[in-house]
Design brief:
- It contains 16 helices and two strands.
- The chain has 332 residues and is mostly helical.
């Protein structure tokens, strides 16, 4: 069996990253800071004001927010009442969201990874993904967080809080751990080969599918829907947005629009994915994309219906989510 990862055990001193890595990561974060200055969906008093350039491709939330800036936003009380969580979420996924030390959390998965546990391998890849921006250059990450704080923009506190949350949870990782994009893909390939549907879905969404062909695409979508696995729904969601527009194999699926991507993500929340105010989902949107709510109590569904969907789109998105859940909402 291939070795799953090479992290050492125990505490270590943290050497400074190499200048090349530090420079590359700093450029990325400064670019995000510029985006942040331009303005990204700040939610205030139940309304949203937007100044984001939709050509920046910040994902469904950012793009739909940009297109909805002309008005018609929906206050949370007018949006769908989020249904109770259904299904069972494995404990190791719950622990990922609750852990304050993701280095220790990942070490705890090592026995299961050695035994070929697909879900443990998937969660290792999620740690890599969540901590990558920090781990590749911790000092640069901290400096850029301070730059954002010093800007004193209206949304600075939210973005700083999200970045500091990542810094605390990922504090024991160092550049030598190689939490790089290349290694994230490698870990997800390992997980998919072991049987993780979520990893398989994420590879499809990142343009590196396990197999080629339209028949495979359709089969994967059907398997994800049948699984009711919230991580798989969430991982597949980017592929089900604009990326699938005009795709014949998905012509009868919830696919092909920015709203459809949101619907898959909202369905994942309903199925049990942690979409709370301090979840990895909300933290990553804010820390990595500058898409933050200024209401620290807002969860992902509330934020989406508050800031990303115009009034005319609410019923459309609700119907999409219902279709994915294979259920009808009360009163419909």
């Amino acid at each position: 069996m291939r070795k799953s990862y090479t992290l050492e055990t125990g505490f270590r001193t943290r050497p400074l990253p190499g200048s090349g890595t530090r420079a590359r990561v700093s450029v990325v974060v400064v670019a995000l800071s510029i985006l942040f200055v331009v303005g990204v969906a700040w939610v205030r008093n139940g309304r949203s004001s937007v100044g984001v350039d939709s050509t920046l491709q910040m994902g469904a939330v950012g793009a739909v927010v940009a297109q909805s800036s002309s008005g018609g936003d929906v206050a949370p009380s007018q949006a769908i009442t989020v249904a109770p969580v259904t299904g069972h979420v494995p404990q190791i996924r719950v622990e990922f969201e609750r852990s304050d030390d993701l280095f220790a959390y990942m070490q705890s998965l090592e026995p299961a990874v050695r035994d070929g546990d697909a879900d443990a391998m998937w969660m290792v890849s999620r740690v890599y993904d969540y901590c990558s921006g920090y781990a590749m250059a911790p000092s640069a990450f901290a400096r850029d967080t301070q730059v954002i704080r010093d800007m004193a923009m209206r949304g600075s506190p939210a973005m700083v809080a999200a970045r500091e949350r990542i810094g605390r949870r990922c504090a024991r990782f160092v550049p030598q751990d190689d939490l790089s994009p290349r290694m994230i893909v490698a870990k997800r390939v390992e997980a998919a080969e072991a049987g993780s549907l979520a990893a398989e879905a994420s590879l499809m969404a990142s343009g590196k599918p396990v197999k080629e062909g339209e028949a495979y695409v359709r089969d994967l979508v059907e398997r994800v829907k049948e699984s009711k696995d919230p991580d798989a729904y969430s991982a597949l969601s980017p592929e089900m947005g604009i990326a699938s527009s005009g795709r014949v194999a998905l012509s009868d699926q919830v696919a092909g629009t920015q709203f459809s991507e949101l619907a898959w993500q909202l369905a994942a929340c309903r199925l049990g994915l942690d979409c709370g105010p301090q979840s990895s989902l909300m933290t990553s949107y804010c820390a990595n994309g500058g898409i933050c709510s200024t209401d620290p109590s807002q969860d992902f569904p509330s934020f989406v219906y508050d800031a990303a969907i115009p009034r005319q789109g609410v019923d459309v998105v609700n119907a999409m989510v219902d279709s994915l859940m294979r259920e009808k909402r009360a009163g419909k």
